[in-house]
């Protein structure tokens, strides 16, 4: 091996040693001076923070949606032999729909009912139509069909026992029940 | 699961329901047959828990075609072996007189009875009926049927049975529903199925051995067929949505029922042996409350396809449909009379719901009841009367009405609210 060659080899070794030293130093400075942050780290931290805030915000919105759903009416009334939703039911149904659309784990049971007038098996079918009218509205508003279960009790479970329009109008209903 | 249901059934079959129906006649025919039923003479030691003479006179009177001669006006109380002094019975205006006796013997008991024609001054028939000690009510119904048939020419319905649903309500979501089987006079009520969820639409098989009904298992509605003798239960359907309003085909092999598994209430025919389903209707309106005609060729049902509930008739072989009712804006829950010539149904007039009958040939409609919220008409197998559900201020009641509307009998229950009556076929 020539001297030159030896010197070259030594230089390379020295350079490698310096580089290795530098690397050690960089590591050291990262460990000791946590107050000084690189641009990438800052970006990552901010991203994490933003994500956390967004989640918190979303949770707050879901919570708000949940609260307004819980505050909304759960009884929806119908006219005799009819299964069309009434205009005044829509705000409350929207509140339920928004919450159910925001929280896919939430589930509801819709119970359709009729008043005692008319025959029982027909009223069972009518109760189902009413529950389906509510279910359809919720689905249009973005609720998943799998979040909804519906059943008809016909005229078998009246809320009111008064035999007049007051009582009957209370009994022609769909009850929305969170599961 | 099946064994469990079976055990529950076996337990409940042994449990008599508390409330018996009490008969109360509100109206009768103009010239009923006057009949004296002399208290049956007891010829052995010990008392019997059934007053046969009372049971027979109540049965006959409930038909509206008879009126009893009061016991306290009778001048003598002869037994079946005694001589009958017809003049004594003419004196108290009795057209026919029934005498009888009962005694315990080694085989159980023996009942003798005779029917006398007071004006003809002769015995129309006399019979000896052996029975077991718990068959006294059956014997009383049998004697009632014999007398009724001899004097009216029509087969009696006193040995037939009734199914109905009772409901006891503590609150909207806390109720007890019972399916009850009783004698035609409301006697011997037995709970054959019980649930905290509604029971609806009980229907008899044509031979009277099985009953179909809608009930819930858990929160899911289903159609079940129960064999009365064993309590065994067969599930016919429990699809998502409606499973309701079953009616047997005249051969007992099929059920027509309502399912909404395709999104909308439609009629289907279920083969009870194979479980195969045949869809009968296809309309976005409600189709339900199907009832098979006695000849098996037609199915009468309720549909809202015209905007309001009306009755329609389907030809079973080609599924073509014709509208049957045009009077009024609510006609539903139809059933055929046993000869298939007329239908009975719920008809709304002046905002009130009554039972009506329509002759299918003449299309003439006769309103049979006067109370409100009358529903679920079910015709007796001899075609003379129907049973229906009505209600007073507080609860559901059952009523009987003759097919001409002239005779009305109420069957108020003692405590529970009752509804959904179904009259059995003849058992013999």
The 3D shape of chain B can be described as globular
CATH architecture of one domain in chain A: 2-Layer Sandwich
The CATH superfamily of the largest domain in chain B appears as TolB, C-terminal domain
Instruction: Report the average pLDDT across residues of chain B.
Output: 91
List segments of chain A where confidence is low: pLDDT < 50 over at least 5 consecutive residues. Answer: 14-33
- Overall geometric form of chain A: elongated
Percent of sequence in beta strands of chain B: over 45%
What oligomerization state is this entry in?
heterodimer
**Number of separate structural domains of chain B:** 2
Outline the secondary-structure elements.
The complex is a heterodimer of chains A (179) and B (428).
Chain A: H1 3-32, H2 39-71, E1 75-77, H3 90-102, E2 108-113, H4 120-140, E3 148-154, H5 165-171, E4 173-178
Parallel strand pairs in A: 2-3
Antiparallel strand pairs in A: 1-4, 2-4
Helix pairs in contact in A: 2-3, 3-4
Chain B: H1 2-13, E1 24-27, E2 33-37, E3 41-42, H2 52-62, E4 66-68, H3 86-91, E5 96-105, E6 108-117, E7 122-131, H4 136-152, E8 161-171, E9 174-183, E10 190-195, E11 200-204, E12 210-217, E13 220-227, E14 233-237, E15 243-248, E16 254-259, E17 266-271, E18 277-279, E19 287-292, E20 298-303, E21 310-315, E22 321-323, E23 331-336, E24 342-349, E25 352-359, E26 365-367, E27 375-379, E28 385-391, E29 396-402, E30 408-411, E31 417-423
Parallel strand pairs in B: 2-4, 2-5, 3-5
Antiparallel strand pairs in B: 1-30, 5-6, 6-7, 8-9, 8-31, 9-10, 11-12, 12-13, 13-14, 15-16, 16-17, 17-18, 19-20, 20-21, 21-22, 23-24, 24-25, 25-26, 27-28, 28-29, 29-30
